[in-house]
From TrEMBL:
Gene symbol of the encoding locus: Slc44a2
Family: Belongs to the CTL (choline transporter-like) family.
Function: Choline transporter.
Protein name: Choline transporter-like protein
GO MF annotations in UniProt: antiporter activity
Reactions that this protein is recorded to catalyse: ethanolamine(out) + n H(+)(in) = ethanolamine(in) + n H(+)(out); choline(out) + n H(+)(in) = choline(in) + n H(+)(out)
Chief place of localization: membrane
């Protein structure tokens, strides 16, 4: 934890560096190769059509493998498991039972559209047709949704109806109420309403997309202008904020004193809080002098603490403001850094796309499992079977009424047994690669901004393309270190995911101790993740500057910050305030402008605004997009501030202002610290 020893050859980010954490680099490469293998295996075995397309009772996709129809049933519910599912060209539009249809050739011709290919017409007795499940026992009016047929439920004057009827015959001579179908179709109606809502939202996007883009461009320009203005207005913004806080507290103290004085002599106002006890109506406490006295004391203490902090931390606040201004200059000299988050975003999108597609293929890797179903007692009931050889097997001889029907998707091979392990590996690799991409972006920006700080004559001594040279150094020498840091973070994040899963499973449990323990673990790992992110961020800055391995960089960064903990706290809070203010101004301004435009309240462009189903759709899109754009700009700016701050602390510990060891900090920072460079021109 001791300060860095002076190195006379050190002039900023070291170019003559070697590879670090090679073992982690090899481990990452092996893991990526394994991830690719898992993806290939998943894509070979998986079939996303199982998620999208419905199947019939044989497990065949509708529209394929000899089932050319588009919709799937069941066209009518079957009272015996498994339910009869048939691929149909269109959903039924009327009530009908097979028993009644079998007596009319015209009705039977219509009914056969909802029967299996084995159905041979009226050649077989109706009861045998139903027993062999060649046709459903009944049809009900249905509507297609997501390639499936659902009962066409509607409400007329508060009465639930299907096809203008409140009852139906179930095909076995029983009259049933349509409300029995309601529970099964309730989710379908929600999906139908959601689809209609989605269509309206899509229509709004088609007529307003170019205005949304204009709003996002305005947000981008506003973010850029705000970063440039921070060079001139950072100090004013911070001091205005401090003065406002002091004035607000002062007004609060005055108001509390006036209320305290007003209650003097009023009946019942001198009752103590302990005598009054707990009251559900909190307004009762506002009629007590003791309440306002407590408020007065608390606000006075806060005011005193803030004034004392200002007195003792004034110089550190000025240093924080100077660093923020310097960061604005650095971003101005490395303008390409503002576009770099787009590269990080693109790589993150690739990680998300690969993870999502692999997860879908893995989840659909199961094979169709067929089992023996029968009406009477049978020793083979529930056993797996093969439809191709079932009719020639001993099962049909011993159990004449047995059938080999599709049961579910599964599998008993080694691959299917370890599917959950492969899904876990998929999630773990997603976190690792996503964190690696973010780490690569952070170390690249840190290297570019460190080049600015350690240039004695700014910007003349900077490399021609600082961002690209920093990116090249990171990939060439420090892939292992970035893999190490992102691996540690990924392990913690996966543990958090597991804890969230366990918490979800234990919600219905009554074990309070287990819930308490789980809550404690979730809190601890949340704190651990935040700490690791903070440590990694600063370790990557040290890697970008010195080219040391991850552990050495993390240790040096941690102890350097601990030696300057007050400066760290002040800079962190000042930058947090400025970023919050910037995001609030940008998102708020663009959001208000979008609201007045899309609600046609700006008279100059009233006729230009497009007609919309929901005006909140483009407004919310502009607000969310503006926030993401502002966050992207400020993430670069925040990395710049953190990098310059670490460089500033290193500069103070390494150098003393002599001709041999001059300070690299800007002239404004030297003036604040009353430091000078002897025998050297000002940087």
């Amino acid at each position: 934890g001791t300060p860095q020893k002076y190195d006379p050859t050190f002039k900023g980010p070291i170019y003559d560096r070697g590879c670090t954490d090679i073992i982690c680099c090899v481990l990452l490469v092996v893991a990526i190769v394994g991830y690719v293998v898992v993806g290939v295996v998943a894509w070979t075995h998986g079939d996303p059509r199982k998620v999208i397309h419905p199947t019939d009772s044989r497990g065949q996709f509708c529209g394929q493998q000899g089932t050319p129809n588009e919709e799937s049933g069941p066209a009518a519910p079957s009272p015996r498991p498994p339910p009869l599912q048939i691929c149909v060209s269109k959903c039924p539009d009327r009530y009908m039972t097979y028993m009644t249809a079998s007596g009319s050739p015209a009705s039977l011709e219509y009914y056969r559209n909802f029967c299996t290919p084995e159905y041979k017409g009226s050649q077989k007795a109706p009861l045998l047709v139903l027993k062999d499940k060649e046709c459903p026992a009944m049809l009900i009016p249905s509507t297609p949704l997501a390639r499936r047929c659902f009962p066409a439920i509607q409400a007329k004057k508060g009465v639930i109806m299907v096809g203008n009827k409140t009852t139906y015959e179930d095909g076995w001579g029983n009259q049933r109420n349509v409300t029995e179908l309601l529970e099964g179709a309730k989710k379908a109606n929600v999906v139908l309403e959601t689809r209609q809502l989605a269509m309206k939202i899509f229509e709004d996007y088609t007529v307003s997309w170019y205005w949304i883009i204009i709003g996002l461009v305005i947000a981008m320009v506003a973010s850029l202008i705000f970063i440039v203005l921070l060079r001139f207005l950072a100090g004013i913004m911070v001091w205005v904020m401090i003065v406002m806080v002091i004035l607000v507290l002062g007004y609060g103290i005055f108001h509390c004193y006036m209320e305290y004085a007003k209650l003097k002599g009023e009946a019942g106002s001198d009752v103590s809080l302990t005598d009054l006890g707990f009251q559900t109506d909190l307004r009762v406490y506002l009629h007590l002098r003791q309440t306002w006295l407590a408020f007065l004391i608390i606000l006075c203490v806060l005011e005193l603490v803030i004034v004392l902090l200002l007195i003792f931390l004034r110089k550190r606040i000025l240093i924080a403001i100077a660093l923020i201004k310097e960061a604005s200059r650095a971003v101005g000299h490395v303008m390409s850094s503002l576009l770099f988050p787009l590269c990080t975003f693109f790589l993150l999108c690739l990680c998300i796309a690969y993870w999502a597609s692999t997860a879908v293929f893995l989840s659909t890797s199961n094979e169709a499992v067929y089992k023996v179903f029968n009406e009477s007692a049978c020793p083979f009931s529930g056993q797996t079977c093969k439809p191709e050889t079932f009719n020639t097997s001993n099962v049909t001889k011993l159990c004449p009424d047995a059938q080999c029907l599709f049961a579910f998707y599964g599998g008993e091979t080694a691959y299917h047994k370890y599917l959950i392990v492969l899904q876990f590996f998929n999630v773990f690799m997603f976190f690792w690669l996503a964190n690696f991409v973010i780490a690569l972006g952070q170390v690249t920006l840190a290297g570019a901004f460190a080049s600015y700080y350690w240039a004695f004559k700014k910007p003349d001594d900077m490399p021609a393309f600082p961002l690209f040279s920093a990116f090249g150094r990171a990939l060439r020498y420090h892939t292992g270190s970035l893999a190490f840091g992102s691996l540690v973070l990924a392990i913690v994040q996966v543990i958090r995911v597991i804890l969230e899963y366990l918490d979800h499973r234990l919600k219905a449990a009554e074990n309070k101790f287990a819930k308490f323990l789980l809550s404690c673990l979730k809190c601890c790992f949340w704190c651990l993740e935040k700490f690791i992110k903070f440590l990694n961020r600063n370790a990557y800055i040290m890697i970008a500057i010195y080219g040391t391995n991850f552990c050495t960089s993390a240790r040096n960064a941690f102890f350097l910050l601990m030696r300057n903990i007050i400066r760290v706290a002040v800079l962190d809070k000042v930058t947090d305030f400025l970023f919050f203010l910037g995001k609030l101004l940008i998102v708020g301004s663009v959001g208000i402008l979008a609201f007045f435009f899309f609600t046609q309240r700006i008279k100059l462009v009233q006729d230009t605004a497009p007609p919309l189903n929901y005006y909140w759709v483009p407004i919310l899109t502009v607000i969310v997009g503006s926030y993401l754009i502002a966050h992207g700009f400020f993430s670069v700016y925040g990395m710049c501030v953190d990098t310059l701050f670490l460089c500033f602390l290193e500069d103070l510990e390494r150098n003393d202002g002599s001709a041999e060891k001059p300070y690299f900090m800007s002239q404004n920072l030297r003036k604040l610290l009353k430091k000078t460079n002897k025998g050297q021109p000002d940087a």
